[in-house]
Amino acid sequence: MHRPSGCPSCAEPLEEGDRFCGVCGYAVTAPPPAASTDRPTIELPPAPPAPTAAPGAAGPVPAGYGAPSPGESYGSAAPAPGWGTAASAAPTLVDGPAEWTAPAPQAPQAPQAPQAPAGAPAWTPSSAEHAHGGGPEGPQARYDLPGGTTPPEGTVAQGTSTPPEGIAWGVAEAAAEAPQGTGKTCVACRSGRVDTDGYCEHCGHAQPRERDHLEEELGSVAAVSDRGLRHHRNEDSFAVAATALPNGSTATVAIVCDGVSSASRPDEASAAAAAAANEALLDALPRGAHPQEAMHDAILAASAAVNALAPEVPGAQNAPACTLVGAVVGSGLLTIGWVGDSRAYWVPDDRAALPRRLTEDDSWAAQMVAAGLMGEAEAYADVRAHAITGWLGADAYDLEPHTATFKPDHPGVVVVCTDGLWNYAESAREMAQVLPADAATRPLHSAQVLVGHALDGGGHDNVTVAVVPFTALADPSPAAEAEPERQPVPEAEARPQA
């Protein structure tokens, strides 16, 4: 009988005599599964031609504070220029003071979310991972990946769409058939008990991990994380939440972290970072802190959480590490923060307007392009392209969180993702082409489509993406647009892959 050389389910190489896949537990002798009829990917029209951008408009995003919207208490800066319309150049940063303004007077804490009734499903973390090849010359190099978090207090809403632990996505009904007192039930035969080693005692099928595929949806944000097709576990993580601001409006938070695959315990690092950053933001924003200041402090809190995972041994190498990118949307402002090569993109609802990448990678390729030594296509084709020069971890160099605040003058969607997605839609135009036109009203479906696009492209890495709709506020006195300045990427050593 003909035997496949790889597992029909996950493509893991098989050995002679294997009856089940050692990674996913798929029965090798079984006929291949039928094609799914509810695949999230859809056929999309080609992207509209992009208008010519003004010189210098495609440079990196410089840090800076935005002017507060009416009713906000972030300072007294003058109204700032909004983002370009369909006929103008790429969006610009909001003008503002060079230093952070003092937080607004102490405001009452946002009301706590009502406690869920007994038996209600608990909020659970979510995650995903990246794989990186090649590294820069030198003794130290990093390659990144992301994961899930714990719901902090003060949120307005928390998603509850994650399946129970040990149950595969879409087959949670198997739990109802579990015999009382026998623990988890096998998702394959639905009759055997799952042993502590993760395999069914009856049919021997390996059970899926909880983090292999996670989805989370709130009214104002949604996120999806998937293990991908080539990795044995998901090392990405994310957190999504919403909280009340002192002026009575709501702020939406999305954090995506990518565990560094060459480091130890990358899945734990990404989960710890996403949880710490999420908690810090949900603590600071209701107290009136400026979102850019809150994002900066949240990244420092995430770094401390990852540092705490390192072994207490002097000179210990290969400590847990991850990258981070986050977005806060509220009161007409969009704040982005990041360390590493996870990215944030802006995609206007009006697809004739210019989409834009909002982050600049901490990577070898980005440094080569910024220094003018290579073109972008050449740099990202190099085997050292994904060697990151910034990360969160005990063995990182001086941490320099990147933050920027924007004030768009038209509605759109913020896509926050790991390189497991942007490797298959690298430019802002490509991301806008893949993103469904109704992303603002169906963020979960749009996140599923983006993850499906990466899986259809090969799924070589873990894939995590959060989709955050943005509604622009009317600006009574818009100022003239200003071109963003290109700032040189600071020199930093890259670490070769372990």
Instruction: Give the proportion of residues in helices.
Output: 10-25%
- The number of helical elements comes to 7
Q: Spell the H/E element sequence.
A: EEEEEHHEEEEHHEEEHHHE
Shape: globular
Cα-atom radius of gyration: 23 Å
Mean pLDDT: 73
> Beta fraction of the residues?
15-25%
Describe the structure.
It is built from 7 helices and 13 strands. The protein is of the alpha+beta class and 498 residues long. Strands 1, 4, 5, 6, 7, 10 and 11 form a 7-stranded antiparallel sheet that branches. Strands 2-3-13-12-8-9 form a 6-stranded antiparallel sheet.
Structure described in brief:
The protein is built from seven helices and 13 strands. The chain is of the alpha+beta class and 498 residues long.
Comma- or semicolon-separated keywords:
498 residues, alpha+beta, 7-stranded antiparallel beta sheet, 6-stranded antiparallel beta sheet, 7 helices, 13 strands, disordered C terminus
List strands and helices in order, with pairings.
Elements: E1 155-157, E2 213-217, E3 222-226, E4 236-244, E5 250-259, H1 266-284, H2 291-307, E6 321-330, E7 333-339, E8 343-348, E9 356-357, H3 364-370, H4 376-381, E10 392-393, E11 402-406, E12 412-417, H5 419-422, H6 428-434, H7 443-456, E13 463-470
Antiparallel strand pairs: 1-4, 2-3, 3-13, 4-5, 5-6, 6-7, 6-10, 7-11, 8-9, 8-12, 12-13
